[in-house]
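User: We ran a pulldown and think these components assemble together. Before we commit to crystallization trials, I'd like a predicted model of the whole complex to look at. Sequences follow.
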Amino acid sequence: MSATAKIFRAQQSMGRAVRGPALVANDGFSARYDLDRIAGVFSRPSHKLAGQSYVGKILVLDKAKGGVATAWMLYEMKSRGIVPLALVMNSVNPILAQGAAHADVPMLAGFDEDITGAIPNGAEVEVDPQAHELRIIDR
Amino acid sequence: MRLDDEEQDILGGKVGPVRRQALAHQIAVGDFFGAADFVPVTQAHIMADTESLGEAGVRWLEGLAAADEAVRRVCVPTITDPRGTDFGKADFLRQTPSMIDLERRAIVAFEKLGVAMTNTCINYQTIAAPTRNEHVAFGDTGVVIYSNSICGARSNFEGGPSALAAGLTGRTPRYGFHLPEQRCATVLIRVDFTPATLNEWGALGGVVGRIAGNYWQVPFLEGIEGAPRSDEFKHFGAAMASFGSIAMFHIAGLTPEADEFGARAGLPNHRVTRADIEALQKSYRGDDGVDVVVFSAPQLSLYELRELAGLCDGRRFKVPLLAVTSPQVKPDSDRMGYTGLIESAGGTVLSGMCFYQSYAREIAEANGWHRLATNSAKLVNILGGYGYQPMLGSMEACVDAAVTGMLR
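Assistant: Here's a predicted model for the assembly, 547 residues in total across the polymer chains.
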């Protein structure tokens, strides 16, 4: 971590510490509704990340959307290596938390500010669930 | 989380590896949401179509099912959401043998775990509606919102792994809608009309879901008149849950906890008009041509099939019309002659599946289905991500579209 890293504290957290590029949008997330899980891209035409790959990215999004399938799908996506590195959300529902727990995908949620407005798209970030922290390493 | 002696024993592996794994998963989720302890549940309902599970998910289930019979079976009644196929109609849908094989393997595994394959997302209409204050672990968003709002039962959205865990341990972490404070209204919605058709109820649910916006919001509606029917609440709630991830609503004068947890001073408020639901429906209209008509999401009740059969009587379809129901309703639909009327017109009645949980992307490509007409607001919300151009219309307009190939 650099001495100047900016730190954001999450109310909710689970999983391992990971570091990677942030893919950021003020939009929601549902594995069933929004993704082409074979190609590894956002497929819903109206999604702000439509056409972009989520593989190996730390997704920084607004909130979990409807649908229970995500609880299974993250595990299936991880088995093929076509999965986000971590999930960082303003607000999550139980399904996303259950799916992240089942698939061992690190997750942070609940910040004092809109996290999608605080993290530059493409920034190198570190997710540290033990410390309940998200850190910007390199913009 | 605080664990009692029985839970300590489960976590210590004294009742086998399957329950230990289940409880460990539940603790991870409970800790995330700050649950203080567990609450016993009386029923569990598992969403687990194989499009969602994939090969990896089915192997995971088979791993649990390989445990000794004495330690692998659920301990409270545990039932299933729709499968990914109707085995008798898989060829019609042009599903592949690998899809069907995966379904069969999942069913074998679930049965070894003691799960009852009810394959329905309308269990509150067909199996056993939960009662007020009954704590359950239900795994379909439409089932949860109906159970919380109309029945007064208590459930969070329980995804497949968590619902199965609840069936295996007989409990679930006490957070969210198991707590009275989470059931309080957070946003007031004033409605100046009462929907007349199922698609309008769904569209209103969609508009309210978008306004409320996330799982932790509880809309309180004023202005709904009369006594809406179960199917109307079904479409309303399913769409609200789909568009907004909402798990509970109150309606003044109608729902059981509206007085206890309803409107209070200072809530943010919104007004919803008929123009708002018309705008939502228009947002899904492209060109008028239709490749397939689908009634599904949620599965149709006997009354919906009755109405549909009446509209199909004497018609001849130009494009495929699919009506999807539960294995509990289908035999009655057959006996009452509803299935015959629908299929005589060229439609197909499917059982035990749901359209969007049945490899929707693949069957679209295999059948050339792109422009899809339905009366389900939930379905149009979902299918955009599957490459369809979904359109929302009344049941009557959708049947007409099956005849003419155009949705008017």
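Residues 12 and 109 of chain A are 5 Å apart (CA to CA). That may be worth checking against your pulldown data before setting up trials.

User: Thanks, that helps.
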